[in-house]
Amino acid sequence: MPVVDFGRTSEDYSKHRMGFPDAFFTRLARENVLRPGLRAVDVGSGTGTVARGLARHGCSVTALDVSASMLAAGRQLASEAGLPIDSREAPAEATGLPSGAFDLVTAGQCWHWFDRPAAAREAARLLVPDGKLVIAHLDWISLPGNVVAATEALMDAFNPNPPDHARFGCGVGLYPQWLRDVSDADFTPLETFSFDVLLPYTHESWRGRSRASAMVGATLPPDDVERFDAAHARLLAERFPHDALDIPHRVFALIATRP
């Protein structure tokens, strides 16, 4: 089984992988989950797309990830945006942070990579009473004949035996199983929401976004990544020649409260 290493994709990830849309953070603010002054921990932060969104809304943010290269890319992006984020190399299951010291824990596009029961227990340990855990996803949606379906078919051809979770949730973008994870860690009550959004990509940025996926750049050897990218460029030119691509995505979020 190939090892997944998103650190190998940090350049493409930081340049081409879009973060959660503004509407996601607006919804959290409307639900009073997100507000200025909160102490927040973003686990599995990667290049910090969620962490930066929290910081823009006035939170004091600690960003955690196991990949040093992803954190380095995130620090650069945060610096360019003028956002103070404390980035640390640590797993979601054992953060090393103090107990009961945070109002909000977020996990964006990463929960399936964790030891989920352990990560839920660690989030509960970090949070103050009535603190919130937000598990969120932003998944592209494959529809018959669309560019996502064509790209996924090409990924399957190059990576027919992907690692566990590499395509977790693809196609549907909903994660009801996460409710069991947080319920077992004594979070209650639970709320969920989802909505669809079109995200704009060019041919270049969609190729970069695809390379930054677990199915390609995080698992395939470099030569295979190059061959995939060349085949992807030909596919886009032949079947989707307009450079402006509207890629359908679905946002899903679970909001869990620590009693």
UniProtKB/TrEMBL annotation:
<dbReference type="Pfam" id="PF08241">
    <property type="entry name" value="Methyltransf_11"/>
</dbReference>
<feature type="domain" description="Methyltransferase type 11">
    <location>
        <begin position="41"/>
        <end position="135"/>
    </location>
</feature>
<dbReference type="GO" id="GO:0008757">
    <property type="term" value="F:S-adenosylmethionine-dependent methyltransferase activity"/>
</dbReference>
<dbReference type="InterPro" id="IPR029063">
    <property type="entry name" value="SAM-dependent_MTases_sf"/>
</dbReference>
<dbReference type="GO" id="GO:0032259">
    <property type="term" value="P:methylation"/>
</dbReference>
<keyword id="KW-0808">Transferase</keyword>
<dbReference type="InterPro" id="IPR013216">
    <property type="entry name" value="Methyltransf_11"/>
</dbReference>
<dbReference type="InterPro" id="IPR051052">
    <property type="entry name" value="Diverse_substrate_MTase"/>
</dbReference>
<keyword id="KW-0489">Methyltransferase</keyword>
<protein>
    <submittedName>
        <fullName>Class I SAM-dependent methyltransferase</fullName>
    </submittedName>
</protein>
<comment type="similarity">
    <text>Belongs to the methyltransferase superfamily.</text>
</comment>
